[in-house]
Every structure is written in structure tokens, then in C-alpha cells.
């Protein structure tokens, strides 16, 4: 298990908390919470050690397209980058649905 | 097109049962109530700890859905997830007591105790069982076993205590998983690689033919909703834990010299002629009996030498207005899997009969007889026949009887001079509102043996032992157990195998004090999280969860 923290200078504040996913084998849960901070901070707990760079790449690519400003928590149980991207996108869609 | 219920996540299952738009989740993912015990062991936690509470309406009736997410840690019950269930059921109880009808529905998809939080899991599960017994006096508690994991371990015992069980064909129910039986009793007892055998034995088809589940439904959201609604409206209640005489009669007619298969068992089940099975008071004999810590202390506390009843593994007697109950070994017992003092089929049902008789005898008495459980159970019985017949029903029968006794005003006290392990402890010990243990190195108190726990959690025994250093609930000794706060007293200076006169007098005095303490207190299990140790460290997460559920309960 490894704990990772990332921050991004994002611009689009989220208005509601959202939650998607389950901490199941090969899967993860993603929580977005509204923030008063100027930065998006991600706290990640992952069961797969040594993938910091991969996370950095997946997150950078996602936030370049969708610069969501939020406090984000991720609990990951060995999801592939594709699944991570899918859950982030679902969380974003859940945000849009509530607006 | 039908919508599968089984394929949904735990949260979506809860929502699917409710009338659209009525759902409100309590203590959900945004409340930061994760298990504090997983990260220290290198395990990723989940924001809801694998249990979802959803209040809402089902066909305009107020309901609470408790849904266990099996994809997270096999749906195992830990301190936080367990406290969540208990706290919610106690709110349901309070509402119903105050005339606000609300029906609880529990979706079971669980391996039982979360082994990484072992002793917390056992405590929580006994507390869930206590709450279910209490709620059933007001409304039925409906259980769903949709399948994926099914319902195993301590939560299978819980399932047997629920009012009515609805399952799909994708579910399995059993106490001990086949891998654990193979580990404990050998591959010839149960071959865990034989998937057909497992499904034939534990699958819904067999289980519905032998009343382990009450209704089998198609895997569809609509059908499931309708079945639950019918069960609630008709107040369906299988009274599964009140069938001890039937099962004891069945066991009399069972040939233990031959293997038993599912077809023969169904035949046997259909043809049982039920006769009553009262258990006799223990009497003194001249024949020396197999030694155990449980027997030693039962005999010393009651003064009955070489005690014997009509069930060789269960001792019970009322002496000086106090009833004592113990499970003891019998190396020649016809059930090989209980020869070392394990809690098996006969033990669970016989104790249920004994305790239910005590309740009945004292029903009109103002002062109810205290019941003292002498606890020395190395485990539940690990056997194929035990699973096929439904050992979880046996253990549920005694657990429910003890809970009922306590709730009707009997002080129920556990005195622990021996082992207190797993299903054996749930059946005989954990429904007590005061736990007294000897501070003795020989005592093992746990959810599963090291070998089995290592196998199931896919760790080495060395890794498991490392984890016990960080998480007291993982440990196997009584001193670490004390750190959880559940004990009324840890008795120093008395050893398990040395019941001398002075020690016996000391223990008797402490038991009497515990009885007085229980008499002047609530007849539930809250004592365990109100001790000084519990409040300061042992049950901090439990207390926090109880508060959170209480704060969010009202609409």
C-alpha cells in the first residue's frame, strides 16, 4: 500500500460532492468534494506500490481536459490507468447530472 | 428486459429496492468514517467501510436498507461497518418502540468476520444479532442473499436469526467456507476445489429444500422488490431458531457411520419425527471425565463432581439460584468434529433448549435467574455434515436463546477460563452483557486459527503475526483482547488449570458482582463500549459511528 498526494492548479470549482466506484479488485472509488482552496488536491491510497509516475500522467491528462477544482480522495485496489480514467470521467458526469 | 439485482453494487442494490427518489443515505462516503485498522496493515480502506445504510420507502412503507458490499474485502464485517449496522438497527428499534413503524431489510453478501479486524468483527456480529432479536419483537427483519459471495461465517449465524430469507440461485450459505474446513479438517472432509460439491451443498437449491432459506426468486430487481414487499406486508417469520427439537430429533436419526449426501439428507429432513429433547440437570458421577478448563470450572462453580447430563458435551445445572452452562469435550462423541469441545450441531440446539426452558420457567418471576456461561470453546465444528445440515442454525439457536434471556431480564454472564474462538464464542459467550476472563496465557480468543486466517487473507503466518503487533483485534491472547474494552474484568492471579478454593471463591465473588452490575443496567450489550478502555481507545471508532448514525437518523 502506498499513499500519494498530487496537486493541480485547476479553475472549474465543483459545486456538489460526488462519489463513484467501489474498492474492489481492479477497481477504485473516487470522491470529489467542493473546496475553498485555489488548488485541486488529490489524496490517493493505492494497493499497488511504485506507480507514482503513471498516476501523474493519468491525472495530468485528465485535468488538462477537465480542470475541476475540488478536494479529491481516491482509494484504489489495483485499477489500471484505463479504469482510473473511466471512474474520473464518471465522477465528472455525475457532477454534470446534478447541475 | 429484466434488470439484474445481483449484478448491482451494494449501494445500487439498496437504491433499487426503494421507491424512486425516496432514498437518503446515512453516514455515506462523504462522512470520512473509514476503518482505522486497515491502513496500518497495508490494506486500502473504503469510504463507507463496505456497508451502505439507505432510508426510504418501499411501496410507501418506511424502510431502512442495510446493504453489504461484497466487492470490498469480501463483505467482511469490521469495527466500523459492524457498528454502522448495529447503530442503525438500534435506531429502528427505538422508532418502532415509539410507535413509528420502520422495517429493516438486510442485504447479506458477506464472508462474515473481516479477518483483518478479527475480534472486532466477532463483537460487532454478536451486537448485530442482539439488535435483530430485539427488533423482531416489533417488526420482521427481512434478509436478502442475492449472491456473489453469499452469506458465510458469523453472518450466516445472523442470517438464521433474521425473520425471513429471500435468495437467488446465485447464492450460497454456510458457516465455514470450504477452504477453511479443508484447512482445519483435511481435504477428505471437504474438498474446496470441488465446485460442484460446494454448490450442491451450500447452494440455494439445497438450502431452500431444507429450510435454510425461505424463498428463491429470479434475479430481477422487480421480482426482488415484490418479494420483499410481500414478506413485510405478511409479516413473514420462519422462526428458524425455534426448531431445536426438530433438529435434535433429526440428529438422533442420522447415521454417523456413513457419508451423507445432499439427496439422502433431503430424505432424512422430510421424514423427521419430532420429539421433545429436554436436557437434564447435571448430576455428580463417580466416573472420571475428560479434562478441560471448561469442565474444571463448571464443576468447581457448581460443586458437581464428574458432572453429566443426557448430552455428553453440554453441562447445565442451577445451583444457589444461578444457572451454569458449559460445553465440554467428549473424545468418544458420535460427532467426530466436536470431540475436543467444539460447538457443533447438538451443542447449539441443546443449549437453546436449556436456555429457553430457563426463560419459560422464570417467565412469571420478578427476579430472573442469572445465567453463567463457562466459556471454553476451541472453535465451532468444522465438518461436511455440519455444513449440510446447517451448523449456523444450531449456533444461531443458542445465540438467540441467550439474547432472548438477557432481553427478558436474566443477567447473562460469561466466565472465560478457556478458549473463546469464532462461531463457538458467538454461540456460547458473546451474547453475555458481562464478560469475565482469567488472565492466563493458555487462553486463545480469536475469529479463526492462524493457519486458516493466513490462507483466507492470502498472507503468510509471519505476516499475520506482524499484523497482530499493530492491531490488538488481530491478536490471539487475552491481554490484547482486554485492549478492546469489552471485558467486565480481567482476573489476575488465577490460572485456568488451577481452580483451588481461594481462586474459586475469588471468581464466585466477581461473578456475583457482575450479576449485580448487569441487573442495574440496560439489558443490551452497550456495556462493552462504555467501559473506560472502550471509550479511551478500544471502541473509539464504534462510538463515533453510533453518534454519526444518531445525528443523521431523523429526516
From TrEMBL, chain A:
Highest taxon of the lineage: Bacteria
Keyword Cytoplasm annotated: yes
Keywords (A to Z) from UniProt: Cytoplasm, Phosphoprotein
Post-translational modification: Covalently binds the prosthetic group of malonate decarboxylase.
UniProt keyword GTP-binding, yes or no: no
Compartments where found: Cytoplasm
Residue positions, PTM O-(phosphoribosyl dephospho-coenzyme A)serine: 25
GO cellular component: cytoplasm
Name by which UniProt lists this protein: Malonate decarboxylase acyl carrier protein
Lineage, highest ranks first: Bacteria, Bacillati, Bacillota, Bacilli, Lactobacillales
Automatic annotation (TrEMBL), chain B:
Residue ranges annotated for the CoA carboxyltransferase N-terminal domain, each copy included: 1-240
GO biological process, one term: malonyl-CoA biosynthetic process
Taxonomic superkingdom: Bacteria
A molecular function GO annotation: carboxy-lyase activity
Keywords for this protein: Transferase
Transmembrane portions of the chain: none
SUPFAM superfamilies: ClpP/crotonase
This protein's record includes keyword Transferase: yes
Pfam families: MdcE
NCBIfam families: malonate_beta, malonate_gamma, PRK07189.1
Protein name: Malonate decarboxylase beta subunit
Record organism: Pediococcus damnosus
Amino acid at each position: 500500500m502506498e499513499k500519494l498526494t498530487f496537486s493541480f492548479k485547476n479553475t472549474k470549482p465543483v459545486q456538489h460532492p460526488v462519489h463513484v466506484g467501489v474498492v474492489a479488485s481492479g477497481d477504485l472509488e473516487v470522491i470529489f468534494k467542493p473546496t475553498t482552496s485555489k488548488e485541486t488536491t488529490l489524496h490517493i491510497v493505492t494497493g499497488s506500490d511504485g506507480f507514482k509516475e503513471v498516476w501523474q500522467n493519468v491525472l495530468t491528462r485528465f485535468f488538462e481536459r477537465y480542470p475541476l477544482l475540488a478536494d479529491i480522495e481516491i482509494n484504489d485496489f489495483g485499477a489500471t490507468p484505463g479504469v482510473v480514467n473511466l471512474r474520473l470521467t464518471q465522477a465528472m458526469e455525475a457532477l454534470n447530472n446534478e447541475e | 428486459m429484466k434488470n439484474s439485482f445481483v449484478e448491482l453494487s451494494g449501494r445500487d442494490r439498496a437504491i433499487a429496492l426503494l421507491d424512486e427518489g425516496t432514498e437518503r443515505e446515512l453516514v455515506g462516503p462523504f462522512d470520512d468514517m473509514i476503518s482505522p485498522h486497515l491502513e496500518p496493515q497495508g490494506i486500502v480502506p473504503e469510504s463507507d467501510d463496505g456497508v451502505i445504510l439507505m432510508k426510504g420507502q418501499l411501496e410507501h412503507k418506511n424502510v431502512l436498507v442495510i446493504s453489504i458490499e461484497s466487492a470490498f474485502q469480501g463483505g467482511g464485517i469490521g469495527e466500523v461497518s459492524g457498528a454502522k449496522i448495529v447503530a442503525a438497527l438500534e435506531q429502528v428499534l427505538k422508532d418502532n418502540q415509539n410507535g413509528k413503524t420502520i422495517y429493516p431489510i438486510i442485504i447479506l453478501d458477506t464472508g462474515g468476520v473481516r479477518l483483518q479486524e478479527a475480534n472486532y468483527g466477532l463483537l460487532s456480529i454478536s451486537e448485530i444479532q442482539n439488535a435483530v432479536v430485539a427488533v423482531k419483537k416489533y417488526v420482521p427483519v427481512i434478509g436478502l442473499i442475492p449472491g456473489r459471495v453469499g452469506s458465510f461465517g458469523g453472518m450466516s449465524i445472523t442470517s438464521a436469526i433474521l425473520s425471513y430469507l429471500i435468495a437467488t440461485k446465485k447464492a450460497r450459505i454456510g458457516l465455514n467456507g470450504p477452504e477453511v474446513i479443508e484447512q482445519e479438517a483435511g481435504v477428505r472432509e471437504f474438498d474446496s476445489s470441488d465446485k460442484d460439491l460446494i454448490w450442491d451443498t451450500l447452494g440455494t437449491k439445497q438450502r431452500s429444500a431444507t429450510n435454510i432459506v425461505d424463498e428463491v426468486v429470479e434475479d430481477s430487481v422487480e421480482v426482488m422488490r415484490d418479494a420483499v414487499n410481500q414478506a413485510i406486508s405478511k409479516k413473514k417469520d420462519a422462526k428458524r431458531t425455534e426448531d431445536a427439537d426438530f433438529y435434535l430429533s433429526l440428529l438422533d436419526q442420522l447415521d454417523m457411520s456413513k457419508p451423507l449426501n445432499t439427496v439422502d439428507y433431503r430424505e432424512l429432513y422430510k421424514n423427521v419425527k419430532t420429539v421433545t429433547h429436554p436436557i437434564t440437570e447435571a448430576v455428580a458421577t463417580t466416573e472420571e471425565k475428560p479434562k478441560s478448563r471448561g469442565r474444571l470450572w463448571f464443576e468447581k462453580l457448581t460443586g458437581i463432581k464428574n458432572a453429566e447430563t443426557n448430552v455428553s458435551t453440554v453441562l447445565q445445572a442451577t445451583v444457589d439460584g444461578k444457572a451454569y452452562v458449559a460445553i465440554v469435550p467428549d473424545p468418544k462423541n458420535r460427532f467426530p468434529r466436536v470431540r475436543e469441545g467444539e460447538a457443533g450441531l447438538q451443542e447449539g440446539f441443546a443449549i437453546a433448549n436449556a436456555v429457553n426452558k430457563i426463560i419459560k420457567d422464570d417467565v412469571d418471576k420478578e427476579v430472573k435467574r442469572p445465567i453463567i456461561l463457562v466459556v471454553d470453546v476451541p472453535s465451532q465444528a468444522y465438518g461436511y455434515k455440519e455444513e449440510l445440515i446447517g451448523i449456523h442454525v444450531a449456533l444461531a439457536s443458542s445465540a438467540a436463546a441467550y439474547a432472548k434471556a438477557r432481553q427478558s431480564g436474566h443477567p447473562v454472564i460469561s466466565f472465560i477460563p478457556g478458549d473463546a474462538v469464532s462461531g463457538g464464542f458467538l454461540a456460547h459467550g458473546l451474547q453475555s452483557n458481562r464478560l469475565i476472563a482469567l488472565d492466563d496465557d493458555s487462553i486463545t480468543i480469536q475469529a479463526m486459527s492462524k493457519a486458516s486466517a493466513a490462507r483466507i487473507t492470502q498472507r503468510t503466518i509471519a505476516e499475520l503475526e506482524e499484523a497482530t503487533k499493530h492491531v490488538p483485534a488481530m491478536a490471539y491472547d487475552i491481554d490484547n483482547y482486554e485492549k478492546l474494552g469489552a471485558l467486565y474484568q480481567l482476573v489476575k492471579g488465577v490460572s485456568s488449570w488451577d481452580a483451588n478454593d481461594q481462586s474459586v471463591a475469588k471468581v464466585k465473588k466477581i461473578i456475583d458482582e457482575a450479576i449485580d452490575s448487569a441487573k442495574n443496567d440496560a439489558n443490551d450489550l452497550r456495556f462493552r463500549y462504555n467501559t473506560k478502555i472502550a471509550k479511551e481507545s478500544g471502541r473509539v471508532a464504534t462510538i463515533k459511528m453510533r453518534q454519526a448514525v444518531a445525528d443523521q437518523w431523523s429526516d
